[in-house]
Amino acid sequence: MTSQVNQNPEAQDQATQEQPNPPIRFELIPEQLFVTVSLNEVQQGELSFGCWTFISEGLQSLGQKELVFILEKKNDEADNAYPTMVLNLVATMWNRAQNGILTNEGDILEIGDTGFIEPQFASVAFQHPFGLTGLGQEDLYLITNLLTKEETEVAKQFGLSRVVALQGFKYNHFPSPPWIVRDRDSVVNEEQKLEMLKSIVAKVPFFHVRGFRLTLTADTIRLECRKDQKELLKETLKQIPMEAPFAISSEICYDSDAILTWQQDMTQGPTAISKPGAQGGPDAVMSGCFMAVIPEQEGNSLQVLEDGFLVSLETKKWEQIRNYMLTGKNGTVSMTPGDGKCVVEWYEPADVVNELRLKVLELLPTLENEEGNIKVTKAEVKGDLNKVAEDIEPIFLRRLTEGVEATVMGYYTDRDPDHDQKINLIMTLSPGPKAAWAFSAEPAADQIMMKGIELRLNELPLPEVTGEVKVEMEFEVAPTKANK
Fold this sequence. Notes:
The protein is an alpha+beta fold and 484 residues long.
C-alpha cells in the first residue's frame, strides 16, 4: 500500500517553538495522541552512537498499531535537534486510521520529491519491530524504515522483504538495522534494478498478500498463511488462471535462521543474512522473499532462485496446493521422489492484533454532510464482535458501511423532504456474498423512495463472509431552510 505523508503545521509548530531536550512528550491531539522523544545510546559491535527514538501513544484507540521511529543522531548535532516532521508522520497515521485506512507491516508511504528527514529518502516503509526491547507487546508496534527512490521502486515491484534483506546484508544486522542511517547509500542502484527486471519473476504477475510467509527446510517448502487474510488470498488466486505462472511476495519470517538476499552475480550460489546464534546444517530454516509458481510442468521441482523459491509443478500437484490456499485448510503435497514436499499451514494472528481488529468494528464510520439535509447518527455492528471478526475482515466491513452511508445520503442530494424524518436501516450480509436491506422510518417513509435507495445499494460490491453479519445504521433527514 502506498500513500502520502501529510503536513501537520500545528504538531510541527508545537515542537519547533520550544524544541526542549529529550526526553519530552508531545501532545498532538489533546488527551488522545502523544509522541515521546528520547535520546538513547546504541551499540553495534565496537561502535556506539546516539539515536533519537520517537514512540507514539494513542493510535491503538483507532485500531492502528503504534509507531516507533529510531533516527541516528550525528555527533555534531545538539540533543534537541531532532526532526519534528516525525510528528507529521504520526498525525498522518492518525488521520488515515480515522478514515478506516490502517497502516501495517509491509506498507509504504511515499513522500514525493522533497524527501523525508534527508533528501534521498523517498518513502517510509513499516516493519515488525524485531529484536527491540522495552516495548512490551511488540505486535502492537510498527518500526519505520526509510527507503531511497530506487529501493522504493524495487519494494513496490518485488516486495519490501527484498530491500530489507539487502539492507541487513550490507550492515550485517538481521533482518536490517532498526535505526535509520541518515547518510547511507541506496542498497539498490540503477544497474541492479535493470538486472532484476531480467528475472523470470519480473515477467510474470507478482502479488502481495499480507501475512504470507515462505520458509525452506531441507527439501520441504512451507507456505504460512494468516487466517484473517484468507479472503484476500482467495481473491488473489482467483485472478490467476490455473495454468498461468505467477509470483507472490513473502513477509520476513523472524523465526527463520537466515533470509535469502538478492545478488547481481549468483554464480557462486545463493546468499543470505543469518540471525545471530542461528543453527546451520540440514535443519536450518531459510526464509525467502518470494515464491514463483510455474504450473503445467511434466515433473515437480523446487529450487532456490535469487532471493526466493521457484516451484515447478504438475497440474494435479498445483491443484492440490492451490485448493489448500483457497479453502483455508492445512495440508501437505508430496512431490515426486527426491523432489521434496510442500506444506500449507494457516496460523492465527497474535491476540493483540485481533484486539486491534475488533476496534475497527467498534468504530464504524458515521459520515456527516453538514451542508445537506441528511446525516448519519448511528452505525453499529450487531452481535458478538469476536464472531463477526471471524466472519468478515473488519476493514472490508468498514468500507462497505461507508459506501452504504454515502449511497443513502447521496439519494437525498436532489430530494428535499417535507418534514423531519428518522430512517433505520439494517444491512444483513450472508455467504454468496449476498445482502438484504431492511428499512423502517418515523414517520413512515415513501415505499417507492425506499425501493429506489435499495436499488442503488444493490449496486455496491460486497465482501465475502463466512457467516451472517448485521450492521444497523440510523439517519436523520430534515428539510432545507427553503422548504421549511
